[in-house]
Amino acid sequence: MRILITAFTLLVLVGVAAAQETETERQAGRDVVRQIQQLDQSLNVPQLVARLTAADKGRDQVLARVKQLMDTELLPLSDWITQHPEIGFQEAEAVEKLTAYLQAHDFEVTKGVAGLPTAFIAKYRRGTPGPNLGVIVEYDALRGTKGAFHGDQHSAQGPVGLATAIAMAEFLTRTHTPGTVTVYGTPGEEMMPPEAKTVMFDAGVFKGADIIVRSHSMNATRRAAPGFGTCCMNIDGVKYTFSGAPAHELTSWNGRNALEAVIKLFTNIDAVRSNMRPETRIQGVITEGGAAPNVVPDKTAADFYIRYPDSVYLEQVTNWVDDAARAAALATGTKVKIDHYGHDRDGISEATLQELAFAYLKQFGATGIEPDPGKPQGYEETGSVSSQIPGIEIMAKSSNWANHTYGMEADALTDIGHHGFLLDAETMTAVLYDYATHPELRQAVNTEFTRIKSLFAEYQAALQKAYPQPEVPEPK
Q: Which residues of 187-216 are buried (b: 16+ CB within 10 A; e: fewer)?
């Protein structure tokens, strides 16, 4: 017992250091972080994890079924999707194969949910009243200069999720355990914001889920600290469209150059980067730049992802970029339309699920283990789902390469990828097995999630005080 308490004390100290992404967040939110750590201590997370991960013949049977499904049919399906990449919202072949497999295993599939043609929901036909176990699967490829490619290994997330969903559904029926399983097919993850999960959440697709799990490729085996955060920072998606007036380039004074305006926008942003906090990321591309060299461009457009670790300072940055666009239009005699078309925000991660999954990953033979928890992050990027429904993203090492690389895509077809994908499926299944069969885990997860969620407003208020804007006087 003393060893467990000592180990958890060390974990708490590490968690305080890792909690939140920036020093400003850690200092402003230190009281909230302390309350989260005290909550996890009160839940006796190490003792709970030790008890759940002990030998269990029933769990071993379910995991054997997962391995059988992966080895015989689902790893080959993962390979096929890897070799036939489809970008977001065009994943017709992947969706057809995934949904056909689910239908063959007693799931009722509804395609085109939330108005998205390649989104789907699959409900286990033989489920009974009890915990609703949710599984998110993705299948879109990255957009690259050489064409679509699975540099994030989303090709495996569908097969991994199916192995988990089917093995758990069969277990529930075979043992008469109360509960059901729902699979959520979420397209276009790489094309947010607004990302498909937010659209689906707003349409009520996730309503009724008690817990949601998913996997994602990584070049290390990791877990998150408890708290608020996202994998890829809070994001505002903004499109700037400039309108000018056409003219022949030899008499360009008769027109107004919208291309100069969009270029000026980029220049204006670069001029103020040094006054922005160093964690800020402003990423933009010109999506429309004119039609012909001898015609003054009368319409141009740029698409931006504006990122910061929290939404409070992000609002300041986005307002700054909007002003840079207005200034560019004013300086060039053009007009600008600003379209805030989407955003991603913080989700919630819980120690109960993170530590349980991490213990299973080590037990099942994961490689590339990072011993300390990383920053808090919800299990899906948008925060829309993971801020409202408890869950976890399983991250086992499945590549020697970084995300969004051709090397990671190649690894999806080799032993390192296949090993990582099997570990993902086994760990997701073990977590859902425990959730379905142990009321004390369900209670601990819900207690932690509800309490962390209740602290978010306090955290935001603390950040508001941490980001004062300087007062700029009128020139004399």
A: bbbbbbbbbbbbbbbeeebbeebbbbbbbb
